[in-house]
Write a structure and sequence with these properties.
Structural class: mainly beta
Strand content: over 45%
Largest sheet: 9 strands, antiparallel
Strand order of the largest sheet: 13-12-11-10-9-8-16-15-14
Number of strands: 16
Distance between the termini: 85 Å
Length: 258
């Protein structure tokens, strides 16, 4: 190889190295675009979720945050709850995380980002449930509002007595208006998975008992004799329902979490 050709090859090589180094210096990581999900409580608040996945192969890919915006005309202190589930089956066994928090928000303003637990799924209206527990206003908040955990005991009534069947773990909430969702431990696809409904002014229940597919198993029948009681942070009492045309009693033994 002639000296001129050798110099030309070396020069081309050095130019390539320098060009590659400059390209590396100006390389930018692709911008991470968050996935978003919003839930709106009319005339009260917007809950705006943001999810970023920094590593698609990560065991826990989504880092989650939440911002709450006050869309009312009033300043308020807001106590809220977020239930996240591993998929679209809304029961106790399938819970991913529960986040309860309280924040002061002036009218029209938005909170700083609130950190949530990491998850493996994107949030949708079928696997996340968000609600306002109270506005720290005893004149308007429902007496029973709050987050609850405990047990539900299932009984079979007879003409003279009741027979205990089983006890199931339960967690759930009553919101500022008395609407409730209770999520129940459930290994049987055709059995009780969730209670949803509301309390009226006399603390009687109207609502439904759902299975894991959100199909209606039974209406909730709450007679005046069986009115649920809230005493010393405990929610107790009985409701009636039917399971495959058989009468059942569901005994509440739940404790409010402060």
């Amino acid at each position: 190889m002639s000296k001129k050709l050798c110099y030309a090859v070396m020069s081309l090589f050095m130019f390539s190295v320098c060009y590659y180094s400059c390209e590396q210096d100006h390389y930018k990581e692709p911008e991470l675009v968050p996935k978003t999900y919003s839930f709106n409580i009319p005339n009260k608040a917007n809950f705006n979720f943001s999810q970023i996945s920094e590593n698609r192969s990560s065991v826990i890919p989504y880092t989650n945050t939440l911002q709450v915006k006050n869309i009312s005309d009033d300043d308020f202190t807001l106590d809220f709850i977020v239930f996240s589930f591993k998929d679209d089956v809304l029961n106790y066994n399938n819970l991913a995380f529960i986040k309860q928090a309280s924040t002061e928000i002036t009218s029209g303003s938005t909170t700083d980002s609130i950190a949530l637990e990491q998850t493996n799924q994107l949030f949708t209206n079928t696997n996340v449930m968000t609600s306002i527990l109270n506005f720290s206003n005893p004149n308007s908040d429902h007496d029973f509002n709050g987050l609850y955990t405990g047990e539900l005991n299932v009984y079979t009534p007879t003409e003279t007595d009741t027979t205990f069947q089983r006890s199931v773990t339960c967690t759930g909430f009553v919101d500022y208006q008395g609407a409730f969702n209770f999520f129940i431990e459930n290994e049987d696809e055709n059995d009780v998975s969730r209670l949803e409904g509301s309390f009226n002014s006399q603390h009687l229940i109207s609502g439904n008992i759902l299975d894991r597919n959100a199909s209606n198993l039974s209406a909730i029948i709450n007679s005046p004799q069986d009115t649920l009681q809230f005493d010393d942070n405990h929610l107790t009492g009985y409701i009636n329902y039917t399971n495959n045309t058989e009468a059942r009693l569901l005994h509440f033994n739940l404790t409010k979490q402060n």
